[in-house]
Queue: 4 jobs
Job 1
Amino acid sequence: MAEREQISKPHSTRSDEAEAQAATGSEAAAERAEKLKADLDGLLDEIDEVLEDNAEEFVRSYVQKGGE
Amino acid sequence: MALPKVLGIETEYGITSGSPDVDPISTSTQLVTAYAVGLAHHIKWDFHDESPGRDQRGSARPGSLAPMVETHLANAVLTNGARFYVDHAHPEYSSPEVASPLEAVLYDAAGEEVLRRAMAAATERFPDSPPIVVYKNNSDSKGNSYGTHENYLLSREIDFDGVVAGIVPHLVTRQLYCGAGKVGWETPNVPEPVGFQISQRAEFFEELLGLETTVKRPIINTRDEPHADSSRYRRLHVIIGDANRSQVATFLKLGTTAILLAMVEDGVTHQGLSLADPVAAHRAISVDPDLQGTVELANGRSISALEIQIGLFEAATKYVQAEGAAFLGDESQASLVLGYWEAALEGLESNPESLSDTVDWIAKRRLLEAYADRNGLGPLDPRLRAMDLQYHDLRPERSLSDRLGLVELVGRDEILTAVTEPPISTRAWFRGKCLARFPENVVTANWDSLVFDLGVDPLRRIPMMDPLRGTKALTGGLLEEVRSASELVDRLGA
């Protein structure tokens, strides 16, 4: 299973296996939160290069017909 | 005993080509055609037995519009068992049927790759046209919405009213971790002006039940078209969901809903979670990304969407502990669904930002808010709306979601394989393998049959009325043994 998010209030129905994973999960979650924060700062630094040139025109011209 | 939950996802993609004046049916057709002609085979879709106007509630509904089936548009069946075609004014990828939520994630991701390849193929084939770009989202922010639909196999024996009672509280509240998020609002249906919504789709839903998908959209679509033996099966066609870029969100969307439907089949009810006004609650939850509000239950109690989800999660956990989860493919899938489900609920309760690598609306909102803070933008600034769209752009050089480090449940190599190889777990395996093996002989295909041209009249139809037959386990040996399509059809006794 992938890393688990920090879990503060166990539900009574949780299985023993999930309990064990939760115990090791909070450290991993804190580490991941740090990494996500650093990643976000890096992305903000480069985002203007990725964004469409004229945001207003791009948004205005994004017109779809209904579907389904 | 709940039936195996055969699943599938149909995605209509947003499409642009330089100018809003270009006819989207033409660009969608160019896109699908460019991909299809590059395939070794090009098999047409067969509309035999399609009946989108039939109603789960049984009686004919005067005045209810059956959706149009447009037979003249581009249509291709892929060797992975999927259908790739033009639906209304959008390219649509309908994944092959699978037997577990993780396979559904894999074939949804394979669909994204098909669309990327189709964009490249269109650029190559139509070099003088502006490039076609596709977006995996559900609205244009101007009041037009297009769908991402899920399908679930159900037993014909169950009472449809029980399905409605059992699943509506979930369909209304699962947006807490399945919502794709969007800037602002676009219809008069929103309860209040809002800078950011959890769901792209909520404000487009106006009814509890109905056959429609394009107007007066219902929380429960009652189309009764099982694409299988209708004496044994139903197919629940769920139209309420958002398209997700997060694989975890797609996994949870399918997995949680499948468990709750299995509970309905087994007669397990969750008491006291019926909503007084599901349509109003659905919209109210969407405009409350700070998770401060409550909705009213049928018993008069006020409750938060998160509390409803906790109630459903606890009921689902008890059910799986008592009954097992063979209906999800294997037990490990249920553990994974319950694990991610619980993590999502805990995160929403204590620290929503901790879900910014698994929940689309939280990932998107966090990015947009950080950008707005840095640049001093108001919540409805066009640059934020542009970022909202680009979250869903499938081009690697423009996609914002691809840059956010979303958790991946399936590997890149697996996805590339799934672009051409069918799932082994359903009849999609037989469909895909026959297309790959006998492209000259398969003249048309659809969900529940293949039609072979064996060089002599008449054409031979192979019915596939059971989605759980035609698996690799059941037909792999036969397909290896036969030397021709004629021998295959003979051996099948068709």
Job 2
Amino acid sequence: MNEAALFPFVDANPARPGTSLMPLLPIILSQGGQEREAVGLLDTGAAVSVLPYSLGEQLGFVWQEQQTPLVLSGNLASLPARGVLVSVAVAHFAPVRLVFAWTQADDARLLLGQTNFFLEFDVCFFRARSEFEVRPKTAK
Amino acid sequence: MSLTEMLPEVQSLSRIDKIRLIQFLAQELERDVGSLIEPGGSYPVWSPYDAHDAAATLLQLLDREKASAP
């Protein structure tokens, strides 16, 4: 079994330390020869992972070429989205193919949600000690 | 003063003062929790909750890629 990688919760509001600790995961996204480092929010409540518009463009995606329209919910429901596939590397683990809802919203966070980040990785949250662990999924 | 040092002092309090102490601590805890959310603050929620159709479509996209892989 792969050993888990340990990450700290990150203070999203340094003005009030400790009030907004977020499970932010550094990842490397790769697509068609383009590679970008980014930080994704682990969001167990999100049905899908979300890729902000500018990050999708930086990876070389062209909006008009995407053929998988999606309808999202919440704040993202008012803007169109498209399905895209990206290779994602977490820590020292082998890259995996993750599917994202690429939204036209640029102020959205990069979200890592149930489909399919949490299908590929097991995560343990230790919020009280401000840490979380990530490891590739294990077979049943 | 540490909690360990305080406990003997607390034990020596009268019953009524112990109740007052409990009330004081409860108010302190309530104030701490209340300060986590600012009244009138804006807290956008970007999570696409319950976007089950979108999730199903994305899984199909993933399956199609797997099926077409050499």
Job 3
Amino acid sequence: MISSVTTTTIVVAFGATLGFAVTILLISLLVSKEMLSADSKRVILELGRRLDVAIWPLLMVFLVIVAVKILEILA
Amino acid sequence: MMAELSIFTGLIAFAEVVTYFMNPGYGLFIHSLLLIVLLVLSALSHRSNPDSGFFLALSLAPLIRVVSLSLPLASLPKYTWHSISGAIMFGAAWILIRVHGLGLREVGLTFRRPLTQLALGLTGIPFGLLEYLILRPEPLAQELSLEGCILLALALIFFTGFVEELIFRGIMQGIAVKMVGWKAGLLGVNIIFASLHLGWLSILDMVFVFSVGLIFGYTVLKTGSIIGASISHGLTNVVLFIAAPLLWQSL
């Protein structure tokens, strides 16, 4: 009963491409958050706050991607 | 809210079908889009606390898939996969709890009715054996020592059992039940929970996961605690991925 890990086939076949796509998503969310924080409307500020729910996990994913790349180069 | 729950449940299930049967890239795109839409809807309804929390809680479902699809797991040992993605999702759940201002009791982090929790926890062993008979996965801990197996078992209990119960039963079900009533809330959240298991490519397993999810959800509703469900969920995975495959090999 594990939903948080995808099947081996997908992991092996698409890992790098999907990692790149998520990096783009993370950058877009970070840019949006910066732009939204400049506004004074309550809804906009709330959206900026709620984006954290997606930004922090994706940032962690990005760090794992970078760490794995560095380890691969070192190896 | 009933319509919104039905629509997003359907869309999440559709995104899973696309991910596993068409193209994971398109699946990731749909999940990312759903994630952003749910976060925007949550912000737009910020004046109404339950509505806002409802959309925010649902956003964890597409986020689970976005995280799991994008992690470079192929480069890491298989036994680390669940801990890494579980730790990241635990962080996401924790941030959501803080952003929405939920209390620990509200998400089921309480030891009420300890005997019931223990009894429910032990059901993980038969559930694990049953799911092993359905899926027959490869052993996760084939090359590990006894200490390694114990560490992996603890990691599975925390990062898959506890984290997934916190997300689905503690946060998502807790808020959905307030919004649409207990029957629809239980049903909707468990359809999402089962659809996120589509990757195992077994209809029988989805039926199993849905049924077990209903048992967990109902017990969490009655006791107000996710502890028993977390132990049971964790033990199910320990038996499924560590104990049962090793036992089967030794026979």
Job 4
Amino acid sequence: MTTLMASRVEPGRVLAETDRGKKAAMMQYLAQKFRVDVFDILHEKGTGHWGGASSVAEILTTLYFDAMSVRPEEPRWLDRDRLVLSKGHASAILYTVLANRGFFPAEELHTFRQINSRLQGHPCMNETPGVDMSTGALGHGMSVSLGMAMAARVQKKAYWSYVIMGEGCLDEGQTWEGIMAAAKFKPERLVAMIDFNGYQLDGSNDEIMPLAPLFEKFQAFGWNVSPTLWNGHQVSEILKSLEWVRQQKDWPFALIYQTKKGRGISFTEDTHKFHGAVIDDQHYANGRPELLKTLAELEAAL
Amino acid sequence: MKTEVKLVAMRDALGQALVELGSKMPELVVLDADVSASTKTGGFAKAFPERFFNVGVAEANMADIAAGMATAGLRPVINTFSLFLVLKCADQIRNTICYNNLPVVLAGAYGGLSDSYDGASHQSILDVAMMRTLPNMVVIVPADAVEMKQALELALRRNGPTFIRGCRNETPVLFEGAEPLAIGKARKLRDGKDLTIVACGVPVVMAMEAAEQLAKDGIAVDLLAVATVKPIDAEALAASASKTKTVLVVEEHNIIGGLGGAVAEALGKHAPAKMDYIGIQDRFTESGEYNALMKKYGISVEAIVEKAKALVAAKPATKKSVRKKR
């Protein structure tokens, strides 16, 4: 676990920061810090999914440290905003973000995927405080988040429901059932976020099951999809994408983020080979300095 | 002299019960997969349009929408034909609803052979087996419209998932004014020392009639109606089997994994007995009139009587072996 955290980017201070520009820079740093933590844990435990966890680090950090209204001391607060990580294999980054957001002690991250741990291989809502829905089998998140958003309407509540999907989720037929149904029911405050890193388990998205043209598909299914392909590794861009959502009135919303699978390490980026591969000592020794270099740069920029 | 039997379809009872409960329970929501005219959820749709959701022929989506709603405090009842509910939503029921122990009621309409004319593609003879293997799930197979309504009320009071298997067709009302259904409790319908018959669902009435016929032939049947296949009333089963040593299970389901399996598992542990099974003999079925179909596939009063007699006839061997041990 890194002990590099500068005091000015301690999570509590990030949450309290009112200057938007400063806060964005702090979250940029935090996301990279969390990425290093995930890399450490995956190496330490010899299990987990680096590629997809790394690609969603900035999106999750921005959601939990800025966009979402949650109460770590009351994880089941009924009016909280919800997040469904449909790509549940990215659990390591979700746990890291939740721990640092105060849902449970960060030391517990060392129990990831081990017997008697609350941190299951894939997210489990009845085990881990802060997890709003268990996921793992792909393709469930769209429907579940739609149900959450529809429940808000029935109960006249104003919470937001976010779902993060990867290419694998979009391969699943059920996701398109959910996309179709969301356009029918049009619940308020439902946001689908696509972590489009271009790679699946077996190869590139083009090779395995091409999703293009994705914007047009969402449009054709009756969604209000942002025409911008957002940079999912730039916190300032993610903030802008969420501002775009708040200016819109036609539900439901889709945001597509260009990301890199295995982001942050030259040899793990843009390949399917680090989807779930063990981070062995060699990978760790070669990869960690690259992550730390970026972390130092982000710290210097604060 | 028989009194006139009142016939009510379980789906009508369910539909009416949903409307009644709808005004008492603001958190009750109903979802259907484009078969509300068949499942009879249309009444609820009319009475509470803001709490009814027709998701189209997309059952998996329906199950997970309901799961999401349940996490937010609603009490969803999802409806479609039982076969499609358990097969098309198997992943959603297991990984989302049961894994998270969410209070979703799964109302499987058209259970067993009751969608008789539609044929094997629609006949649901594996649903009980599938639902029974899911942790947190309670499985109820009502025998009449009264039990159907009570099952729904019980399910909506649970803090976890419940599968209720219905029937398409009108069936005799058996339990009006009787002790209400309780989860995990068998109904003792008859006392006898020669043979235990355990039944659930529509065939309960057949078992009642068969028991009467058997009595005329001098065979005293201990008759148990077991609506809750899971959790099963192992105590009542064991008490009966210890007395009769012989058990016949009757159900409208494949003989593999349903009530027969549940009873065998319970008795194997608590009171091993000689057993036989009335049900569909692990094969695909076909189109036809409901009663004719039931009869052809071995679920009838005659079949029960025949197997019961065979079981009882085989009993002296059991007595002999007991004597030898002594």
